[in-house]
Structure formats: structure tokens, C-alpha cells
């Protein structure tokens, strides 16, 4: 990589510190900033597995505070004057590391890397080695595929469901796109972690189609739904009823290539 392709970014790690006296914390997010392009973005824990890890480390953790943090921080990042006073804006339980600089070529890829290295739960180890199946892990893999196929910058990220459901709906669909008048959505679902995610996606798809009949949905999963697994088959039937396509990670390259040809 040529040095001219790199630019200096700065980041801070967000730490949840429920007891300031004990000074014990767990990393819950990262903020990345590109001052040259006046761009800043945060990525915080949101998935059930991530919140569960915080509860294991801090049984009395304020889960309501952590669940509200992504939306609160998104509002702050959109207001430069408020962002300048970030340390005085959020709850005292949210502390920040010192600002650090990093050289990177791609802003989004660097945000993924920082989140993976500093915030994401460490990968579990099983008999077959490292096993991963969280939505955050699937999304990181999908981001890499979309970048390689040159469609990452052509699709929306974090599409708010409340535009189609009810005000205050916290769900965000991972990706959105438009093809010849058709609205499309792609969302990651971890079959091995929380099948309830599938019910939320199915409900959301039904609500969106009630307002926008010309829509298509794709769920990207870590593996193909197994025929011998009742939970996997429940999800498969649910998605079939709501006309949600299923693409396991081992088939996502072909899916991305097809999507690139359609949205160009």
C-alpha cells in the first residue's frame, strides 16, 4: 500500500464504568474521526450476545443506558458543537480513552478493525478452533465482500425501520439499496445465536411491504439452515412465508456479484 493512499484518522474507545470508585470498565464502543473530511462515526455494542457479555462482567449493568447509547451518540455526532463537549454530554458511567491516531486507507474498514480489536467479544474456542456466529461478525465479513465487489459505497447502511413501522422502533436494517423502482434490504441473522432476530426481521418485512409492495429482502446467515436443526427450520419456514431470501456466508460472493450488476 502506497503511503500516499493513507490518511490520519483519530479514534477513542468508549468504556462503560458502572462504579467510578472501583475504576472497572468494559469497552462498549469506538468513535472514529476524519478531521480532514469532517467525518465521524461510532460503532457500539447492540447485539444480545454483546450486552450479555457486559452483564456477565457487571451483573448490575444499566442495560437501558447501553441500549439507548447508539441513538444518543448518533445525535451527538451530527452536531459538531455538541460533539466538541462530548466528555460532558453523556452519562458519567460512559468514559473515554485518550484520543489516538492511526493511519488507514479506508475509513469504514478501519472502523470495523477497531471495533473487532477493541470492543467485540473475544471469539469462542471450541473443538474445531475459533467459532464465530454473532451478527457483528457476519456483518464484518459481509462488509469485506461488499468492498471487494465495489458496492459498499453504493448501498445504505443502518436503515431505520421506524420509517416504515412505528416511531421509536429501534431496529436498523443492515443495508438498503434501490434497483429500478424496487427497494431492497439485506440483514444479517445469526442462526446459532438468537432465532428471535428472525421474527423481528419477518415482522419488519411485513410492515415494509404493507407500505412498499415493490421490495425484496435477503437474510445473510453464518451457515446454511440445517435440515436436522428444528430452530434452523423454523427460521427457514418463517423467511419463506415472508419471501425473505437466505444467503449463507459461503454463497455471499455470488450474491454480491449479482447485486453489483443490478445496482450499477
What's the short version?
It is built from eight helices and twelve strands.
Describe the structure.
The chain has 264 residues and is α+β, with helices and mostly antiparallel strands. 36% of the residues lie in helices and 29% in strands. Strands 1, 2, 3, 4 and 5 form a 5-stranded antiparallel β-sheet that branches. A hairpin with a 2-residue loop joins strand 6 and strand 7. The protein is globular and about 50 Å long. The relative contact order is 0.11. About 2% of the residues have low confidence.
Protein traits:
single chain; 264 residues; alpha+beta; Trna Endonuclease, Chain: A, domain 1; 2 domains; five-stranded antiparallel sheet; five-stranded mixed sheet; 12 strands; 36% helix
**Ends: how far apart?**
27 Å
CATH fold call of the largest domain: Trna Endonuclease, Chain: A, domain 1
Which strand-content bin applies to the residues?
A: 25-35%
CATH architecture of the largest domain: 3-Layer(aba) Sandwich
Q: Per the principal axes of the C-alpha atoms, what is the gross shape?
A: globular
Average residue-wise pLDDT: 87
CATH top level label of the largest domain? Alpha Beta
Amino acid at each position: 500500500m502506497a503511503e500516499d493512499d493513507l490518511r490520519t484518522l483519530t479514534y477513542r474507545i468508549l468504556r462503560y464504568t458502572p462504579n467510578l470508585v472501583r475504576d472497572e470498565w468494559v469497552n462498549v464502543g469506538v468513535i472514529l474521526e476524519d478531521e480532514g473530511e469532517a467525518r465521524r462515526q461510532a460503532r457500539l455494542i447492540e447485539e444480545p450476545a454483546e450486552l450479555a457479555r457486559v452483564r456477565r462482567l457487571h451483573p448490575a449493568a444499566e442495560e437501558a443506558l447501553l441500549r439507548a447509547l447508539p441513538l444518543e451518540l448518533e445525535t451527538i455526532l451530527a452536531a459538531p458543537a455538541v460533539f466538541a463537549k462530548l466528555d460532558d454530554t453523556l452519562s458519567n458511567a460512559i468514559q473515554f480513552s485518550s484520543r489516538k491516531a492511526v493511519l488507514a486507507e479506508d475509513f469504514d474498514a478501519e472502523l470495523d478493525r477497531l471495533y473487532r480489536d477493541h470492543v467485540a467479544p473475544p471469539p469462542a474456542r471450541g473443538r474445531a478452533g475459533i467459532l464465530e456466529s454473532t451478527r457483528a461478525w457476519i456483518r464484518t465479513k459481509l462488509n469485506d465482500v461488499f468492498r471487494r465487489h465495489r458496492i459498499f459505497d453504493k448501498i445504505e447502511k443502518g436503515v431505520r425501520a421506524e420509517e416504515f413501522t412505528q416511531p421509536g422502533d429501534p431496529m436498523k436494517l443492515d443495508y438498503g439499496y434501490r434497483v429500478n423502482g424496487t427497494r431492497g434490504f439485506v440483514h444479517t441473522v445469526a442462526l446459532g445465536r438468537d432465532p428471535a432476530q428472525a421474527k423481528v426481521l419477518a415482522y419488519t418485512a411485513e410492515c415494509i411491504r404493507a407500505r412498499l409492495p415493490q421490495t425484496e429482502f435477503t437474510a445473510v446467515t453464518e451457515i446454511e439452515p440445517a435440515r436436522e436443526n428444528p430452530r434452523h427450520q423454523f427460521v427457514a419456514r418463517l423467511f419463506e412465508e415472508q419471501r425473505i431470501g437466505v444467503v449463507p456466508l459461503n454463497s455471499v460472493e455470488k450474491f454480491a456479484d449479482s447485486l453489483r450488476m443490478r445496482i450499477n
